[in-house]
């Protein structure tokens, strides 16, 4: 297997609410797609939103999961100020801040929020590790 992730698909309970959160709330660019799915272009990958039960059925597993899913998604930014800005933006459109931004033991600055379905996003600034395009002005 080649070391890459092409797409991240989140099984969501309310597709329209999640589309609103990611497209209009967080400002992710949405691609054209059939009404039962939503795709957003990210830098080198895609985020897909799909009905939770439909995704579980597609994977042949139960859709009844609750609680901590055992993973988080991370969005690395260039500054502590940008961490604060992204966290504030997410909170303003309904995200639940589970850990307010603060200095970390690894020398960075980070916080977490949960999207409308409880998926955890870490917003982080690591001064030693930038994961973004070299020409990104932010």
Please explain how this structure is put together.
It holds the Pfam family Glyoxalase. Residues 4-126 form the VOC domain. This is Glyoxalase. It comes from Desulfofustis limnaeus. With 138 residues, this protein is an alpha/beta fold. It has two domains: 1-59, Roll (2,3-Dihydroxybiphenyl 1,2-Dioxygenase, domain 1), CATH 3.10.180; 71-128, Roll (2,3-Dihydroxybiphenyl 1,2-Dioxygenase, domain 1), CATH 3.10.180.10. The protein has helices at 15-25, 52-58, 80-92, and strands at residues 7-12, 37-41, 46-51, 73-76, 96-103, 109-114, 120-125. The protein has a four-stranded mixed β-sheet, covered by helices on one side. The termini are far apart. The mean pLDDT is 89.
Strand residues, percent: 25-35%
Query: Would you tell me which CATH topology of the largest domain applies?
Result: 2,3-Dihydroxybiphenyl 1,2-Dioxygenase, domain 1
Instruction: Write the H/E string, N to C.
Output: EHEEHEHEEE
CATH class placement of the largest domain: Alpha Beta
The helix tally amounts to 3
N/C terminus separation = 32 Å
pLDDT under 50 segments (min length 5)?
none
| Order of strands in the sheet with most strands | 4-7-6-5
Residues in helix, %: 10-25%
How many strand elements? Answer: 7
Protein name: Glyoxalase
Pfam family, one: Glyoxalase
InterPro entries: Glyas_Bleomycin-R_OHBP_Dase, Glyas_Fos-R_dOase_dom, VOC_core
Domain VOC: 4-126
């Amino acid at each position: 297997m080649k070391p890459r992730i092409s797409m991240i698909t989140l099984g969501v309970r309310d597709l329209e609410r999640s589309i609103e959160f990611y497209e209009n709330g967080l400002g992710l660019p949405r691609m054209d797609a059939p009404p039962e799915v939503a795709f957003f272009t990210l830098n080198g990958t895609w985020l897909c939103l799909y009905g939770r039960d439909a995704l579980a059925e597609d994977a042949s597993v139960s859709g009844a999961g609750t609680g901590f899913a055992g993973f988080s998604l991370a969005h690395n930014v260039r500054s502590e100020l940008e961490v604060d800005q992204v966290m504030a933006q997410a909170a303003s459109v309904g995200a639940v801040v589970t850990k307010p931004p603060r200095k970390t033991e690894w020398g960075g600055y980070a916080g977490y929020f949960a999207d409308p379905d409880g998926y955890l996003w870490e917003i982080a600034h690591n001064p030693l590790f930038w994961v973004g395009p070299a020409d990104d002005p932010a």
